[in-house]
Amino acid sequence: MKKYNIIFCDDDKEFLDLISLNFISSFNNIEFNIYKFLSLEQLTEFVTNKQVDVLFLDYNFKKENSFDYLEKHNINNTTKLIIVSSFENIIYDSFKYDIFWFIRKSKLDIDLKNLISHLISVLNDENNDVIFKDSNKKLVLNKDKIRIIETHSKNNLVIHEDKQYIIRATFKSIKDIFMNDCDYIMPTYGKFINCKYIKFFNYSDSTIEMIDSTLIPISRAYKKESEKKYGEYLCK
């Protein structure tokens, strides 16, 4: 399982601590290392020797801005570059540098929340492993092999693979990972199923038959979206 290197670079220590702390508290189901730098010089030394998977880069530094820095230094094209700034007028200029996201310091909570949801989905698609963890254990499973995920009770998830796993976690904690995955549909709230293991999608009586003959009802609220996503899966 890959462990991602996530870097925060900002010469404002108070904000640097704030954004990294908020990120750590919300970034679930993925293994990562956090590095914090107060200067571009420290950042340069790090990127010269190590892989950077995600980089949160402040725009305004004392000696130069981050755009000037990016003009002079090659950041690996696999790095997810996130520009962080108080200057909202530079958003469009930042697109030149193939950024992954832009975070406004004045809207940190909402921008960071939206970023994290998307970033988790992208990294999991690239890696294809997902981590389920609670205070007692950690499961690392390949998404292709997961057949069904469902809530067993308020705080328990049941994961059906070649065998069954039960872990203490909420459905909400893993929802973003699978909601945006084109291989999974949610036929009813609290349950995801992998389209790869569907034997028959019965549109007339709103049921899904899995390859092991398990029958799963589709709730009215999720029928239209389930049909749409399954159709898109078949057309891939």
Q: Layout of helices and strands, plus pairs?
A:
Elements: E1 4-9, H1 13-26, E2 32-37, H2 40-49, E3 54-58, H3 66-72, E4 80-85, H4 91-94, E5 101-104, H5 108-127, E6 129-133, E7 138-142, E8 148-153, E9 156-160, E10 164-168, H6 172-179, E11 184-188, E12 191-194, E13 198-202, E14 207-210, E15 215-217, H7 220-234
Parallel strand pairs: 1-2, 1-3, 3-4, 4-5
Antiparallel strand pairs: 6-7, 8-9, 8-12, 9-10, 11-12, 13-14, 14-15
Helix pairs in contact: 1-5
The low-confidence runs, each spanning 5 or more residues with pLDDT under 50, are none
Examine the secondary-structure arrangement and name the CATH architecture of the largest domain.
3-Layer(aba) Sandwich
Tell me about the largest β-sheet. 5 strands, parallel
Rg of Cα set: 21 Å
Molecular shape = elongated
**How many H/I helical runs?**
7
| Terminal residue distance | 27 Å
Mean pLDDT: 90
Structural class call reads: alpha/beta
Number of strands: 15
The CATH class label of the largest domain is Alpha Beta
Report the helical percentage.
Answer: 25-40%
CATH homologous superfamily placement of the largest domain: Response regulator
Series of secondary-structure elements, N-terminal to C-terminal = EHEHEHEHEHEEEEEHEEEEEH
Number of domains: 2
CATH topology of the largest domain: the name is Rossmann fold
Strand order across the biggest sheet?
2-1-3-4-5
Q: Work out the strand percent.
A: 25-35%
